[in-house]
Structures are given as C-alpha cells and as structure tokens.
Amino acid sequence: MPNIKSAIKRVKQSQAKNVQNSHAKASMRTAVRKADLAIENKDENATVLLRAAIKETDSAARKGLIHKNTASRQKARLTKKAL
Prior knowledge:
The chain is built from 3 helices and no strands. It has helices spanning 5-40, 46-63, 68-82.
C-alpha cells in the first residue's frame, strides 16, 4: 500500500475506474452475445438487439475499452450474420 497521499488517491481512483470499465465491457459483451443468439435463432427482435449491440460496442470503443478496429470488426461480423 502506498504511503504518499497522492499515490493513495491514485489507487482509489484506479480501482473505481476499473469497476466502471469492467461493468461497461461486460454489458457490451452481453449485448453482443444476446444479438448473436437472436440472429442465430431468427428472433423477431434480432434487429433491435443488433442495434443495441452496435451501440454498446461503439460506446466501448469511444471510451477506449476496446480498440476501434476491434469494434468495427465485431459490428461487421454481427451485421453479416444478420443478413
């Protein structure tokens, strides 16, 4: 554990950010998984779930949680499956 006050604060901040980032990344993965499953099962709400997955993926890329090319690749694969 750090002794310096600024280092203690930095540890607290990085832990809080880690929790937020983990939550955002997990919700993105869940949205992609749900959309993928809906597309495979040919559900009527597949397009809605696809839009939600694309939105979550874009959001994660904007926040720097995933690389923008990774986001683009994931969106392309989902869209290709939907067609």
